[in-house]
Amino acid sequence: MIELLKGFPDNVAAFAYHGHITKADYDEVLIPDFEDRLRRHKKLRIYFEIATDLDGIDPGAMWEDQKVGFSYFFDWERCAVVTDVGWAKHLMKFAEFFGFLYPGEYRAFTEAEAQKAREWIVEGQQPEAKNAEAKPVEGKAVPAKSAKAKHVLAKR
Predict the structure, then answer these.
(1) φ, ψ for residue 72 (rounded to 5)?
(2) What is the b/e burial string over 46-60, where b = at least 16 CB atoms within 10 angstroms of the residue's CB?
């Protein structure tokens, strides 16, 4: 089962994997949550806990995982995976090694480091909603979006 985790900012999609994972878990839990957050944010951060009670993943779930990964490849900026599951730890280390191939930062943590992972996933973020107006940040220029705005700025 895939469980939605609470207590994270809106731009962090947080999940825990327990027991047996099925395609329905992706269709009913993970994908709707991820797509809902993407309607509000340009990029997401992803936090996964793979619990030691995970006892299997259906082939349909593995296929959905691959489809989600490729469909939203450029829609995330940071991913934290927390696990003490042997095969998953090896897979995460492999993924970290090839992290230069990913568009975002990727880190693996042990269960003892779960709090550190939660801190890292929100560290340094300034979530920006897709439909929010650009607001100046002190000391930083904000690019003008329209030709009229660029013209006004050029006169300054």
Answers:
(1) -115, 30
(2) bbbbbbeebeebeee
DSSP string, 38-91: HHHBSSEEEEEEE-TT--EE-HHHHHHHHHHHHHTTTSEEEEEEEE--HHHHHH
Using a cut of 0.85, tell me whether the model's pTM lies above it: no
Highest mean pLDDT among 48-62, 65-79, 123-137, 138-152: 48-62
Instruction: Pick the more confident residue, 73 or 83.
Output: 83
In a domain, 136, yes or no: no
Extract the tokens encoding 40.
């509000």
Q: Is there a domain that residue 137 lies in?
A: no
Question: Does 148 reside within a domain?
Answer: no
CA 41 – CA 49 distance, rounded (Å): 22
Domain extent for 34: 2-131
When divided into structural domains, the chain yields a total of 1
Is 54 within a domain?
Answer: yes
CATH assignment at residue 52 = 3.30.750
pLDDT tens figures, 22-46: 999 999 999 999 999 999 999 999 9
